[in-house]
TrEMBL record:
SMART domains: Prim-Pol. CDD domains: Prim_Pol. Transmembrane segments: none annotated. This is DNA recombinase. Residues 17-163 form the DNA primase/polymerase bifunctional N-terminal domain.
Amino acid sequence: MSALRHIDVAPPHVVQAISLARHGVAVFPCLENKCPATPHGFKDAVSSPDEAATLWQRYPGPLIGVATGAVSGIDVLDLDLHKEGADEWHSAHCTYLPRTRTHATRSGGLHMLFRHREGMRNSASRIAEGIDVRGDGGYIIWWPAAGLDIVDRSPAAQWPAWLAEQAMPPPPSKMDPAATEQTLRDADRYAAGAVRAAIQSVLTAPQGRRNDTLNGEVYSLARFVPQGLLTAGQIAQAMAAAGLQAGLNQREIEKTIASALRARIGT
């Protein structure tokens, strides 16, 4: 029996979730703390009204999670306005922002919705401290269903070019295997093999785990430095190229590599 048969007795937030699914938005239940109520988080999001009704029957949750990116056709600029950096950025740029669907958030910030732009992924504080982007592989809470204000009911706008440039990572540079081999030309054969395996591990890490993988691989490789089998510079150069190829930004890569080397060998 279709779960939609019970729509007349469903809580208001479930009714709204079903309505969003009917309009092609991928939804899933979340708990009061914003964590997913489903086993696989945003990967369980559905854009079928009947599937949405069934999902809430199986995993009741008081909040509506919306998977962002291509799956729903929307990206979100998440502004935590209680953070100084976000408030300053918004004050300086608000007159240049287009009219677009905007929701108030529980923390006193804003969710600005934009039509999905190909290649737009999640990022944290890339634009400014306290300003995050939710694109492919991310999700938001649909706060209007929890009673918060819709600040602007305009349709979702396209990303303005200047903002998209700030929000998106630079195109990853192509890794040159010859350059990597040149970097490792004087390295011990076993250690050089470990570097190549570490590079492959970073390149194949799933989205959301790439920076952690980079950190772990650099930390592991640093064991060769005290033995004289690799230098910190060889590790940093090879792994930075891998991080760029995997889509991480330069600043994030530099911080991660420096932190991992410092933790292992104090450099």
